[in-house]
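I have been asked to look over a protein record a colleague put together. Thanks in advance; the entry in question is below.
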Amino acid sequence: LEIALFDAADNEVSCAVASGSSFATITTSALTTDSWYYLLVNSKTSADTGTFTLYINNVSPVKYYIRKDDDWNKASTWSTSGYGGSAASSVPGKANVVFIKDADGDVKIDNYTAECAGLILTSGSKKSKLSIKSNGALKVYGMLYLDDSGNKDLEIKAEDGSIYVQDSLLYAKSGNSEESKIKLKRSTLQIDQSLTMKHNGGKKAKIESEDNCTLTVAGNVSLINDGGTEGIEFKADRTDINISGDLLIDDISGSGTVKFEYKKDKSLTVSGDMQISQNGSTGNVEVKIEDNVNVHVLGNASVTMDGGSSDLKFNFKKNTSFTVDGDLLLRQTGGSNTLKFEAGSSSGSEKDSLIVGGDFSFGADDGDASNFTLDGKFYKSSKFLLSGNLTALTSKGRLDFSDPQAGLLLIGTQVQNIEGESLSGSLIVKYQNITVKNSYASSPDTAASVIFSAPLKLEEKLDLIDGIVRISNSGSITFAQNMTLAGGSDSSYINGAVVKEGSYNMLIPVGDEGVYAPLELKDYSNSSSTNKFTIQYFRDPYPDTSLAAGLVKISNIEYWKVEKNSGTSNLKVKIILHWQDGTSEGISDLNDLAIARYDGSEWVAVQPTSINGTVTQGSIETSYGQGGFGPYTFGSIGGGNVLPIKLNYFSVDLQDNQEVLLSWETAMEHNNDFFTLERSYDGRYFEEIGTVRGAGNSDMPLSYTYVDEAPGSGNIYYRL
């Protein structure tokens, strides 16, 4: 075992070594007061464990007590014998603990640095105030303790100054009839451990900062109200705040209001969690974040009401960004009033954003349709960017995006499960403006990036940038009259039913199994907001393939279903079918291409039609409005288009002998002569390696195989 003592310059003062069961001991008289020393204990093996004891002898730290309000740097301000005692012969230093009580005025630190080992500022029968200004600095190498249990006000004020606390700052108020505060202006407060503000009685306890301040706390910040009539107030204006631990705002009891206000042009960073809770008080909890500020919580955030008889209000607005890297929880489990969460304002000129990297959950145990005890509202200026799930934990509460410009942006990298709409009863969930930008990609057969748990109706906008949208339990998305639609692609479409209201022309961005297959409705014969159609695309063959005269074949891999839900009996509308990849659709001859509609007993050709585009990508449109609805698909009037088979699967397996077995199964075949197998070593350029004869026509599943006996090495791609 080795022990060594070093001074602040890393010079070794003394050392000792012990072995076996003996002790290592250092004894030195070379230490000086007001100096830092470091003790190194080095265990040579993992078996050498135990304890060590540090004795410091012949040290009698002098305590300094206030004797009058004056300059810190004057010996006459202090006494070493007690409050109001005889004047000291020197001022406090970094090895001394300082006591300030009943100063009846200001103790000033003006344009110099004051140091002490600890500072206890206590209220009494007279006010006590510590004032730091004009580049003055206070350095406390231990704890700074504000004990506001007396009758008069207590205050630390820094203006163009700085305060450094190497340990923790504890601010306790328990019985004062006057307010107490810590007030900063163009100043810095650095705390290397925690900041705790606890109110147990009396008037308000305040922490205020303004006009370009900096607050840095290496540990947790706790603002706790547990009694009294006026509560706690934390106001930061143009102040950068960095909290390396958690931020806790807890209203346990009392009748006073707990206020947390952060505003104007700066940033608040919480490296841990943020917890805001009301547990049993009769006063409000008010959290306001506003006016061009950025709040970033690297952990989780929660706003909860478990009891009490007043409101808990959380609001951010005026060009403000509130970011939570983890989960955000809004939860009401008790209390007789309301938990209100409000994002943004009614001003369209402002831009406010809530960004949640994890899940967003909300719910209330109490309340009904006439009294929501949890009420979340997103106003005109707000956008909610969510990477995780959005979940209602109970059947009570309200989450309202009813302002047309209040947007929900789904930006996850995994599947996002989103609470569907609920427009009546004790649970209200309402959306109007949704953007999908989810980068998750799964196999085409199970493709879904965003899943809504219930149907929804969008009255303002849907923007499909990336990600496939699906409604669970065969639900639908309704596009209201005059709703705006943007986007749509192979990587972003709606996999399910779309209900379109009104008479405006629209391309419906539907798809299935990784295929984007939009359908367009246009030129309604009757213009009415009551017109309603349901559209869905299926990447499957329609069960009945009976053909009327004029059709040689229909597509055996896909169809669209167009149903009229409401409208006049003579309502007609033009229908346009789109293709994005003519090769996979089997489209090779535009002159032979037709639109086919199933009339209930057989497929009939819809004529005349017009075609736009090429065999690679294009559309086919009915020349006249259609009054008959149901399944639609591509047809061939002369057999010039392949309109291919439907595959159940296509798999590749490397065998023990290094040959490659290719296997596939068709669900059905129509005029299928043969299959061609192709191989590539870069995924771009393919060469034919063989053919397998097809079945011609079949309505039953058929299996096929092919063996590549000389596949080569490296990455290999196969195409059927």
About this structure: The first strand starts at residue 2 and ends at 7. The radius of gyration is 37 Å.
